Here is the input.
Amino acid sequence: MYHKAHGIIETLAPLHVGASAGEETGNLNLIFRDQFTQTGIIPGSSIRGRLRADMRETKPDRVGFWYGKEAKENQPNSTSEGIIKFEYASLLWLPVFCPDRPVVRVTCPALLERYQRLRGRQPHNFKPYSYWGEIDSKLLFFNLGFLPLKEKRQELFDEFMPSSVTNRDRYLLLVVDDKEMPMIHDMGLYRQSRVQLEDHRKQSKDKGFFNVEALPEGTVLVFPIAMRNKFDNKPVDWQEYLKEQEIEKEKELYFGGLESVGFGRTQVTLASGDQNNDGGN
Amino acid sequence: MGLLYGSAGGFLSPENLVGRSNASFPPSSATLSGIFAAHYGDRSEELLNLQLAGAFWAKIGKEQEFYVPTPFNSLFNDGKIGSDLITWQCDRWHYSTNSSKAEEGTWLSISEWDKLQTPDGEKPTVSKPPWEFVPHLHPRLEDDERRVKRLDENGTNNDGTLFLENAVQLKPDACLIYLSNIELPSAWYRFGGEGHLVEIESLKLDNPAKKWLETPLPRSFAIVTPAVWGSNRLSYREPMVKKGEQWYSVWFPNYKEYEKPILTQRPKPTRYRLGKQENHDPQQPKLLSRGRYAVPAGTIYVLDEPLNNTWQSWDDSWFPKEGHYYFKRWGYGLALPLGNAITPESKSKSVLENNIQE
Here is the structure.
């Protein structure tokens, strides 16, 4: 049994976590995707790696305790299980350009359902095209056509927009059908061609040209965290972890590749599942 | 809560990234047994009588109508039309005429199990499993730089820098189902390799599964979980017991090896980790059991006489024993009645006569 908690990631810059096996050879560097909703995810191992590397800088002697010890060569049983575990971060809200808005935050029932579940809440019936926000007309001019807005739901904002998100009340919130999410997601991704030039000529270096896709700035993701309740018959304290990890409330962390060119900056908020709140409250 | 681990055996080395390791999913009930052991403590009263069976799966909200592997005698092509049936007639397996290539690895809802009781009549529908494999590369990075670890001074890297996981993602509206005789508190648990997390909920077993588990087995039945029979070292295709120095078949005392009425496919390798090592940290790896060949789920047995009992009442001695446990503990060879595996006497005669005329 584990203590339940979760984390909210808000991207402050484009975020690229990718190169799943077999896809790293093409010229478009894809982000890691969920197989069913086809939306971007951040693998749990990446989240773990980031936090672990951070702790290694500040409290190197505690890394083994929280994240487990690595196997040493020719030493059987030198590994240990970590106290804290992460699963992948799934999308919660994706900002999408919409000609007359200019930004709509989009999600779908499958993604909301996961957020609901990892906070330990009862299943909720999310109807496609329910929305929250101020509108002039019930027809939204979306990039791929006109989209009808149906019911206005206050809980989309109250319950499903984490309170730590910047400008959380500025944009329209919209739930689309699960089937439409992959296409809208693909439309909303940040894509860039990158070229590395030769040092003294304006010509691309060999293998210095590639395309990359990333989750856009303002994307909100959510991931479950589990912490062992006991270790060596002593209780483990969630607050102690937050203190040693130096995330009292929220923290800026970098994830994924292309950090040096401004990708990957995010704001991470951790919330204990027992407090039953959704972040910064 | 996230991905699950699906790799099995045959791992990749950093020098060879072309292939993938083998895949195995869903995890066996022995994996779940580990969670019970961790929760109840290795030598607790409850754990001595623990009995598990699985793995099955279900759609969330319809957990009682969980899916079990399709018996091998039902051949399906597009998930709906099960026109082809393999039946036992007097002394041999009879293939119906229009058999084309059948789908493999399909699953059947337990609520449709009654449609398997007569050779004619309405045919059940089958489903594909609700999970997908996601190859997932875990590079090992330099401590202070975000790039894959460099080679050592002598040009090698003993740790390896890349690890490819065959992760598995379950559809959000599906869950795995295991049968158990004791309860596990609802919570998050670690399940399978790579420390992946799951949410476990205990539900009371109800019909239709309950009915089928309580139905005495007739002459023919199918197993819905893999079965390991025989001694601790040898795997057989049916229960064997030792009398003196000799091994005897329990179900087929009168048959020779090659003509037993068993419909099966190639064996499935199986093994698990078991037991706590003395004087070690409880988090240390457990001992790996001997690798065994299991009869795959879906195998059909046709006996001379009805068994007239249920799987639960089968003798422990039919199963191999390893450590303190008989394999029955992990639900090996869970059998359900299967009426349509035999053509009725009268009909089979006429079919045989027809065949002879042709």
Observations:
- Chain B touches chain A through 34 residues (CB under 8 Å).
